[in-house]
Amino acid sequence: MNLEQLNFHHLLYFWRVAKVGHLTRAALELHTSQSALSAQIRQLEGRLGEVLFAREGRRLVLTDTGQLVLSYAENIFGLGQEMLGRLQGRSEGMTRLRMGSVATLSRNYQENWIRPLLADHPSVVLILESGLLEGLLARLAQHQLDVVLANETVPADPDHPLHCRFLGSQAISLVGPASIWTAHSLRVPEDLDGIDITLPGPRHALRAQFDALCASAGVTPRLHAEVDDMAMLRLIARDSGWLTVLPEVVVQDELRSGSLVTVGQSTQLQERFFAITTPHRHRIEILERLLSRSPDAAMTCQLSSLQPGVGRGFSRA
After folding, report:
1. Which of 126, 227, 238, 129 is nearest to 175 (CA)?
2. Which of 27-31, 154-158, 299-303 has the highest mean pLDDT?
3. Residue 237 burial (CB < 10 Å; 0-12/13-18/19+)?
4. 175-198: per-residue pLDDT in tens?
């Protein structure tokens, strides 16, 4: 059969009977007769060419095919309920939060930002994707994403207006192996001329800050690697022996264990975090609560894991 031949009204009736588990109760709920309900389910079975229910005594039990059809019907009508709830400004049933994040953003920061909904909102389905900012913003404008997390703001565009909310910031450090370096032994950027170094890649918002800082001081570090992914940058910092420019939280386990030390810092190097949304989006209650938290709320949680005696924190970048 073709999709055009599928009667979604019959599928709705099947879904309610499967959920209730009883023809009579489902018929009362749907304001129809039991015989009419049975007839419509039989028509659906005829179109599909499969039996959806088996009788065990007075009970209706889903067949294997019925279980499969139910799983699809749950998605179809669950999304329908969610759509109506969004349009009417309320939450009902399942809520999908579609979040994009730039590929260069710390995964530790992302996890801390979404942590409230991971623990307390079992009805929320989180859809998380990463990519380049331009592509994520295009999907946001098409309402394929609800929010984009980024480490840079977006330019004003009157044709495609966006809301850009500041979420917080974190300091950037120069870290190196404790076997070679002592803590805070270098001035940044004054002492970096000719120093072996690893940097975030050109796409990372931090990179332009660092390059400008070095240029203003007239110093040129010896670049060995440039890496977009924070998890890979952590591995290089840990295993290469080179100095690495990154947020301390990326290598917090290594700093805590003493295998790496903070060799230098500059107050002029900061990674900033923003939540980007469309101005006329339909309200998602859980997203509004995440956005209304005070700036640096996620960073406060994140950085607390660096304090002695507070636990191991996260091992991912």
Report:
1. 238
2. 27-31
3. buried
4. 999 999 999 999 999 999 999 999
